[in-house]
User: What shape does this take?
Amino acid sequence: MNSVRKYNLFTFKSLPSAFWAGVRVIHLDEESCTTTVKLNWFTKNPFKSMFWAIQGMAAELATGLPITLEIREAEQPISMLVLNNKANFSKKARGRIHFVCKDRALVKEAVAKTIATNESQTVWLTSVGTDQAGDVVSTFKFEWTLKAK
Assistant: This one.
């Protein structure tokens, strides 16, 4: 799975609600992951902005996909699960929103520690959502737990 198109196929197969809401992966490298979603009839709330849960799906994918890839590269059976999350909403989400997680180094460290110690690890990853003007609309923090199988 080395292309954005393949990541979006993964979303279609494994996260169909996110796919049908329009959540897409647009960038993934060794440092960051970016997802995007657009305000439309399906993603709106009664306040003419994006429903918080839609934002959460895009934000979670931006943090979870790097973990999935690190586990795949490590070739070790490791389970992953969101343990906690926190969210802050600073502006109405309108138009196209991009969520960026720049915590890939933390992911690498947590996966390596899980393998080395054979003990569960937790890691907090942050995904920041910005609108087309570059203004932050929401910030999500997800506490992921990793456990060797």
Helices lie at 4-14, 16-21, 52-74, 104-117. The domain at 4-148 is CATH 3.10.129.10 (Thiol Ester Dehydrase; Chain A). The chain is about 35% helix and 35% strand.
